[in-house]
Amino acid sequence: MESMSIGARFREFWPDEATRIARLAAPVGKSLVWLDSDVANEIDDPFAIAHAVLSRTRIDLAGISIAPHRRAGGVERGCIAASTALAEATLAHLGWQGPIVPGAEQFLESPERGVDSAAVDALVAFGMAHPGGMIVAIGAATNVASALLREPRLVGQVTVVWLGGHAPEVGSADEYNLQGDPIAARVLLESGVPIVQCPALGVTSHLFVSLAAMERDLEPHGGLGAFLTGLLREHHHDHFAYEKELWDVAATGWLVQPRDTVTVLEPTLRFRDDFLWVRDPQAPLSRRMTMVSRNAVLGDLFRKVRTHDLSREARR
Q1: Sheet strands side by side (includes 31-37)
Q2: pTM summary value
Q3: Which one, 104, 137, 153, 182, has least CB within 10 Å?
């Protein structure tokens, strides 16, 4: 299938422009969310999970599906099990009891057919049962693209918040989520589903945190703070002048405090075979994040971790 024909497969299910713009507007009140995450790929995913669960007035987390991640040219062996275990370990500190659903163990081989998995079943069921629901994808787009290919009507039902690709002036030749499964990324971006794109370099890359800051602000504050601090401590061997990007928290940040980001409404970007971005004025509208306030978003997360510790202490 030629890339230009991907949209043709979905076009009859596109929302009208007014509906699309409404679904791409900054969230007001509480959003019903399904999170699709490659939890064990990088340490930022558990931070995003914690942010979603702790932001109860803004996010109603319906479920979590596990996305595959790439190593040495293919899906890393055992990554679904490893990500499930890390999700469970994170959620043990949060008291969340929703479903954690395993995703695909291979990437898409063709834009004509997705990869079946329990995650695809769950995403389709969620989207079809909850018009206006949000799918927040913070890994490769494998599960989400597979769900769209399984059930094209989803493009008119849901909004996808996807952390993938770099900012347009950077290109995306080495962006992990897009290149993890480029066929899935192409299906997602060309399907016509309303997308809020959170680019990596140039945008979400500003969400830096140091071990020193976490040891001061989080580690003394309960099991969750200590757990998250330990993830960063073990992630890197030398923390001198080192800070780690918590990229994925930008996606939850947009849902929780959209005023702390800057976004633009524009035709959805597409990418060439060399991963440079293409602007097509005829493409359906999407929203792209262009700036995120590091202090506001991470400050919100840190305060909620500390408040969570205090509330647990009060219940004892």
Answers
A1: 100-101, 59-66, 31-37, 134-137, 159-163, 195-198, 285-292, 261-267
A2: 0.95
A3: 153
